[in-house]
Amino acid sequence: MRWIDLPDDEIAMHLRSYHHARAQRSAWLRTFKITPERLEEYEQELHYEWERTFRRHTRRLRNGTPDAERQEVGQEVLDDTMDKVAGKPARHGSTTAAWIGHGTLHGLADQADTAHPDRALGWHPDYTDLCKQREEQDQ
Predict the structure, then answer these.
(1) pLDDT digits (tens, 9 = 90+) for 56-66
(2) Counting runs of H as helices and runs of E as strands, what totals does the chain give?
(3) CA 131 to CA 113: how far, in whole Å?
(4) At what angle are helices 36-58 and 67-85 packed, to 10 degrees?
(5) What distance in Å separates the CA atoms of residue 77 and residue 91, rounded to the nearest whole number?
(6) Which of 43, 22, 51 is nearest to 90 (CA)?
(7) pTM to 2 decimal places
(8) Which pLDDT tens digit goes with each residue over 79-119?
(9) Is the distance from CB of 109 to CB of 101 less than 8 angstroms?
(10) Torsion-angle region of residue 7: left (phi > 0), alpha (psi -120 to 50) or beta?
């Protein structure tokens, strides 16, 4: 979220959603209110919504596009994706609080630089390159 230049108070709001969603999903699994398979399907559904939004916003960017504009596009990707997933139910036949979808997406974004390339997602148009650069710096 820093790569798209979000203010600290907004980052804090997104982090709260991430932590609350993680706790809720864990409670659902412990109490058998959701299966691991359904949770995986839910994550795939959210990833699909992100991918559609990401591609729509980034398809016109060119290599010379200034970073400030790339950050703005990243903010649009974040905002529009959050709007899209806000009403997506995690459990069939139920309603799901918006922060669960939001936080679940942030959890997937947190995996963008791990061994889950099929789940990788990010907000900045160049998030894959930025993750690679961070990995190289950490080595």
Answers:
(1) 999 999 989 99
(2) 5, 0
(3) 5
(4) 140
(5) 25
(6) 43
(7) 0.89
(8) 999 999 998 999 888 888 999 999 999 999 887 656 566 67
(9) no
(10) beta
